[in-house]
Every structure is written in C-alpha cells, then in structure tokens.
C-alpha cells in the first residue's frame, strides 16, 4: 500500500482510513471508494486465504438483514484477495466487556438473537459468536462469517481441524460433529456469562479441554454476582448443556431474557477481576482429552 494522504493509505481504488480488526486469515479496514462510498475491506493476509473470502462473499448474499454486512464485491487489489462489504457503524461489544456489563449484555443478546434467527433460517451457523464479532447500537450487528458453515455440516475441515475461538467453542465442535443453530446458542451463552460476570464459565486454561465443558463444573451468575436473577442461572445452564439437542430454542432464550431484563438492567455492576481475552479465531487439531 502506498501513502495517499497523511491520515489515509491508498489501496488500489480505495482509500483506507483505519484498521477495524485483524486475525490470522485477514485484516479488516474501514475505507472509501469514489462510487461505493464508505466500505469495509477484508483483505486476506496470504493468497491461500482467498478462497475463504470468496466463500464468505457468496455466503453473505444469503442474508438480508441490517445487522449483517452486505457484500459488495470480491476482487484482487494489488494482488491481495479482498472482500468489499458495507461498513457497519456500531460500537464493538468488547470495548467495555471485560468489566462485566449486565445491562448492555442482556439488551444486546436479545437483539443478537434476532440476527442469529435470520442466519439460521437461511441455513447457516455462524460458528464464531463472540464479543469481537458483535457491534452494538440500535440493532446488534454480527460480523465475520469467515468460518460459518451450513447447518448440519461437520465442524472439521478437510485436514481434520476445527475452526473457532476456543473459549466459545461448543463441545460438539471439539468432537468434530455437525453444527446446528444450538452451536451458536452455546457460544452466545458464554458471551452472556462474560457480560454478566466479567468472567468465563470455565477455567481459562481449559478452553480446549472437552472434559471441562462436558462436566459443566461452573459457578452460576447468582453466585458470582449479588442479586443476579436465578432465572439466568437456569437459562445459562440449559444453554451450556453439552448435548446440543437439550439446549433451548432461541425463542425460549429470548423470552427469559426479556422477563429478567427489567431486573438486571436496574442493577449496578460491581468491579471484577478482568480476565485475559482468549479471543482469536484459530484452526486447531482435535483434542478429545
């Protein structure tokens, strides 16, 4: 990329303003185009990731929802595979998430369920629901469909690896089994727990250990936080069930969250120890130990 002006970078026909996020497979930039206006550019970090961006471009065409980026083009810019999308302008959920934000978390989760319902109705599982992939505003927004899969597809790739963020991976993903809408609800439960308590439901050094998630040895939110509605304990326990067929449907989750929202949203959030965020999407060999 060659410099275009002091505060921006020229990237082919685009002017790049800032980095929105980065990972092992791609970096996302906020940019501008003379005809398209403000856009998000997802640029592959290496040519071999171009096919993943091409697949994501095709997948995004299935959706028509304000909480999901709209694909504009897939092209190579100065030899770099690039996915061009609409630029969503919500605030990253993870900005204040480590403190435990029960008010915002419940409201955002209710809105995010609407987005996930749309995704699932179109036959897709996101497979990487986490604070870094969620923007909040008037409507929750869900980003990064780079490792999304069709409902009923295996969680493993051709090399027998699973992709996702270990802390948020459902047990069936770690087992290499098929993914369903319940897979995303498991990840949403981890997100909810973090936002309610400022912690993860499982020890941070055991995110890839299947036994930790199957045993479900955890502290309910009402134990970690004073005056937390016990209905949230029951809800999260059911959403974290290691058997995906026993997790509640999104409609039931939404109903409970709406019922407890007036109680949670009126209560202040006391300070907690901030956990280290193991938030990077990874491809890992299966470890069933």
Which regions have little confidence, pLDDT < 50, spanning 5+ residues?
1-6, 271-277
CATH class of the largest domain: Mainly Alpha
Distance between the termini: 45 Å
* Assembly classification: single chain
In round numbers, the mean pLDDT is: 86
Please tell me how large the radius of gyration is.
Answer: 19 Å
Strand line-up of the largest beta sheet: 1-2-3-4-5-7-6
Provide a count of the helices.
8
Shape: globular
CATH architecture of the largest domain: Orthogonal Bundle
Count of domain modules: 2
Main sheet summary = 7 strands, antiparallel
What percent of residues adopt helix (DSSP H or I)?
Answer: 25-40%
Q: CATH superfamily of the largest domain, called what?
A: Transferase(Phosphotransferase) domain 1
According to DSSP, the number of beta strands is 14
Give the ordered list of helices and strands: EEEEEHEEEHEEEEEHHHHHHE
Q: Write down the CATH topology of the largest domain.
A: Transferase(Phosphotransferase), domain 1
């Amino acid at each position: 990329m060659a410099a275009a002006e002091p505060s921006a970078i020229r990237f082919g026909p685009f002017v790049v303003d800032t980095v929105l996020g980065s990972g092992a497979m791609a970096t996302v930039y906020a940019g501008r185009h003379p005809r398209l206006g403000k856009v998000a550019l997802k640029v592959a970090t290496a040519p071999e990731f171009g096919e993943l961006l091409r697949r994501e471009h095709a997948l995004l065409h299935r959706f028509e929802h304000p909480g999901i980026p709209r694909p504009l083009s897939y092209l190579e810019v100065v030899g770099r595979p690039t996915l061009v999308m609409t630029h969503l302008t919500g605030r990253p959920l993870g900005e204040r998430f480590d403190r435990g934000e029960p008010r915002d978390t419940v409201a955002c989760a209710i809105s995010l369920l609407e987005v996930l319902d749309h995704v699932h109705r179109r036959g897709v599982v996101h497979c990487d629901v986490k604070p870094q992939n969620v923007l909040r505003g008037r409507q929750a927004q869900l980003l990064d469909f780079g490792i999304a899969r069709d409902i009923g597809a295996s969680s493993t790739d051709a090399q027998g690896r699973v992709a996702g963020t270990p802390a948020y991976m459902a047990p069936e993903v770690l087992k290499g089994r098929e993914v369903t809408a319940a897979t995303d609800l498991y990840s949403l439960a981890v997100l909810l727990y973090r936002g309610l308590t400022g912690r993860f439901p499982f020890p941070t050094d055991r995110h890839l250990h299947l036994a930790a998630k199957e045993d479900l040895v955890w502290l309910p939110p009402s134990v970690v936080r004073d005056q937390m509605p016990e209905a949230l304990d029951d809800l999260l326990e059911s959403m974290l069930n290691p058997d995906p067929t026993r997790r509640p449907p999104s409609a039931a989750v939404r109903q409970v969250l709406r019922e407890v929202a007036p109680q949670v949203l009126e209560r202040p959030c006391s300070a907690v120890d901030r956990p280290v965020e193991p938030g990077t999407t990874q491809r890992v060999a299966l470890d069933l130990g």
